[in-house]
Amino acid sequence: MPGVEATETHLPRHSCRVLEISGIPSAVGEVGEGAPVVFLHGAGRLGGTAWAETLADEYRVVLPVHPGFGDSGDDPTIDSIHDYVLHYLDLFDELGLERFHLIGHSLGGYLAASFAVEHAARLASLVLVSPAGLLVPEAPTVDMFRIPPQDVLGYLTDRPERYGDPDAPPDVDQLVERYRESTTVAQLFWERNFDLKLARWLHRVKVPTLLLWGEKDRLVPAAQAPRWLELLPDARLEVVPGAGHLVLGESVDAPAIIRRFLAEHPQA
Amino acid sequence: MLSADELQFYFMHFMPYADRPADESDSVWVDYSNSHYDPGVGKRYYERYVDEMVLADRLGFDGLVVNEHHSSPYSTMPSCTVMASTLVALTGRAKICIFGTPVNLTYPNRLAEEYAMLDVMSGGRTELAFPLGTGMEYWSNANEIAPATARARYREALDVIRQAWTTDGPTTYSGRYYNYRYLNVWPKPFQQPHPKLYIMGSGSPGTIDLAAELGFGYSVTFIPITQQLAAFDRYRAKVTEAGGTPRADSLILGVMAYVADTDEEALEEGRQHILFYFNNMMRTTPRYLAPPGYVELGEYRRRIERMLTQGVHGNTDWETLTKLSRVVCGSPDTVANAIAGWVRDAGSSRVICHLHLGDMPHWKTVKNLTLFAEEVLPRVRRLIGSDAARAIGARAAGEDAAAVGGMHAGR
Description:
The complex is a heterodimer of chains A (268) and B (411). By secondary structure, chain A is an alpha/beta fold. Chain A has helices spanning 81-95, 107-119, 149-156, 172-189, 198-201, 225-231, 247-250, 253-264; strands at residues 4-5, 15-21, 24-31, 35-40, 59-64, 100-105, 123-129, 209-214, 235-240. In chain A, helix 1 (81-95) packs across helix 2 (107-119). Classes of the chains: A alpha/beta (268), B alpha/beta (411). The interface between A and B is medium-sized, with 18 and 18 residues.
């Protein structure tokens, strides 16, 4: 299928095209060549994907944009995590991706874990970075819909200055896009920000799994990790000291840890 | 042309909880703590407000309007059917206008039952309007009702209620949000097949079109005059387009008024409470006004642009308010002239009168209601009546002229 030029600002150095996937314009960035690695972004996309460049010398990194975000189109009938799983099955068919490494961050981690529950056989490995989706009563994920906009950044990072000038005048386009993306997230998380059934089925993820967490994550606390380790059959944990929720962009160690993990699990 | 006889005036009460400390909170909705609520004070408010509604009935107002909001001192009527039930029991003449419960925030069969109960209990005195509910209501009701689905749920819930009232049961209903194996509402409304129905809107084209499509009336919330008039024009055009004839009693407009012997006295006594309403009761954040998915992106963009230029609720000044909206403080003549003009412009024969606002004390509300009923209403009727007389005169004169012209042309 022919792709069209896209203007995905988060992917400055990647090739980016927009594919039509069962009626939904779906933006897909790509960088590098080699064994395929798919990255599923989180709800905010604030951290960007520049870190993925560090894998490009050895891997084909595929960076799709979820429906309802950025240059991808909206489809109000995509309103459950399972719908996203099915959308990605369509997308992976289109890209000819049979077997690959899957990385997901935050909301994307929840999506990656859900994909793995149903399709573990297609994964060479799984990396869950500060994954959402699990109910851990003693260290719950913060309900972002309860957080006033001016406080949101504080939950994502210790270094808000890296993400723009808070005193800059509001940009209408940006505010509208943020409302659009929050509507997309609300389709999944308005009722609750976890999946009651996820814990019941994580035993099906029979694939080497890396859990990666920022030590100071205020949104999805690293204290949830033990529960994931208990439920996942083949997982290990790496905690990045000092990093917050946007651990991939904030610490050079994080991509390096992922790189080492991928190397341990070459394509079968 | 309206006739004075068709004009009806409804007294509407928000029943606010005004007894609270001055504060700088961003919002008095959703997260404004109920630690500020004192049930003892609340009981006195209910007694007082119900007295005011009953007085309005005795003074000859044609309707008593209740509505509902949640988690805010703006209104202490989170269930307007509860209050309507009290009014049914304590009044005997005025219509009970339930304007109303957001049908998508409850089960539509249950609302069909409650409204039918009230209509039967009152011997057919109810009128009903269906609001979508403000954005704020979605933050403080069950999370399972996502704001992104509000409009679709609303539409479906209206279908359920209409089916429940227009087709004898048991029937079935199969929808995306509501499914009924046995839809069979007992009791049925006293007014058959149902009371007069309105859609409550704030000027959104989609809502106006829906009212016209369903054959409902359209009652508009308190938005600026130009937006109200545009909404009414659209409604009439849509009804006409569908082959109907727009009726003056299908459009309800709202006015805020305070009456005293002189303009000066009315301003002195009334203005502060109306401003209190706008600046202290309506104060909330853009986030609460528009939860994710509650408005379409185009509408959201318009709102953001408006907010960036005009600010949000909470900094209303009197001059702007009285210029843009149907707000008047004055002598009976001043208020009557203003209202007659608004009614003429709107072509509507139903007027919601907000005569208690904000922290207005009981004595002022009683004074305002009494003067409005005894001094303003007769004047408005006279003004509209003389319009009609003039119009009949003008039409007669016009017909003569046309007849003469015709004769000339004929020659």
